[in-house]
């Protein structure tokens, strides 16, 4: 029953999203069509136009990719993982990109085991989204501080940047699909991340001060082999 409810809720969201996705994809498609027609008329390749076409294609790809994470009827396989290793994997994945952007990662993972029951690839997706946002908020570079600790029955993950920050009125809009202020943004990252954390019975919170930086706070219940244990 629970599962049915969860699935139908997911379907509604996906249905609503699909309309948005169709709309978001139509714009770059129109651009692509226009430029292709131009190439045909002038019968010679304009590299600037080809560049634009490629970036529009990339955009479509990004939007569809993020949408698929939600829409895919995935047989979600929850496994018990120590979140510190999951985070560590994502950090190594992004390390070279961070280096290029003058961004350094500072981690404080503590000594305690931080085991949770999770769909690891989905959580990686969340960390990638949040860390990328943090990097993109610091065009001149800076430090991203990633902390993990246990608090009673929760694992708390904090990801803090020293970037441009987010105004209060903008914070209210975060999580709305397609809300973005980036040229190459999809405005899906936060929404997808929130949903994934929700499906892990966790919480996702953003705190920010303009000009000082942004902190994303995520909590996920600690895994307990014996759930009745108090
Ligand atoms: P995208 O990154 O594609 O724009 P997101 O859903 O990831 O979509 O983020 C939505 C918007 O939230 C961003 O365009 C940006 O304005 C704001 N935002 C998110 N994270 C941060 C951050 N760490 N610092 C400043 N702004 C942020
Ligand atoms: Mg993003």
From TrEMBL:
Protein location: Cell membrane
Domain of life: Bacteria
Protein name stated in the entry: histidine kinase
Source organism phylogeny: Bacteria, Bacillati, Bacillota, Bacilli, Bacillales
Span within the parent record: 336 to 565 of 565
Domain Histidine kinase: 20-224
Coiled coil: none
């Amino acid at each position: 029953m629970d599962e049915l409810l969860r699935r139908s809720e997911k379907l509604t969201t996906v249905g609503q999203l699909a309309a948005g996705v169709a709309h978001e994809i139509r714009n770059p498609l129109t651009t692509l069509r226009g430029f292709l027609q131009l190439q045909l008329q002038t019968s010679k390749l304009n590299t600037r136009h080809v560049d634009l076409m490629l970036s529009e294609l990339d955009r479509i790809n990004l939007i569809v990719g993020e949408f698929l994470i939600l829409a895919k009827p995935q047989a979600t396989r929850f496994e018990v993982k120590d979140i510190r290793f999951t985070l560590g994997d994502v950090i190594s994945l992004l390390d070279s990109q961070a280096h290029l952007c003058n961004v350094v990662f500072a981690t404080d993972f503590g000594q305690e085991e931080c085991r949770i029951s999770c769909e690891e690839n989905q959580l990686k997706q969340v960390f990638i989204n949040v860390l990328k946002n943090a990097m993109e908020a610091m065009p001149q570079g800076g430090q991203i501080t990633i902390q993990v600790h246990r608090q009673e029955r929760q694992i708390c993950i904090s990801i803090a940047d020293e970037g441009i920050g987010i105004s209060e009125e903008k914070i209210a809009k975060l999580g709305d699909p397609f809300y973005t202020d980036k040229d190459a943004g999809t405005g899906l990252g936060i929404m997808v991340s929130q949903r994934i954390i929700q499906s892990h019975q966790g919480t996702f919170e953003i705190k920010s001060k303009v000009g000082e930086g942004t902190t994303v706070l995520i909590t996920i219940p600690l895994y307990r082999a014996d759930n009745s244990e108090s």
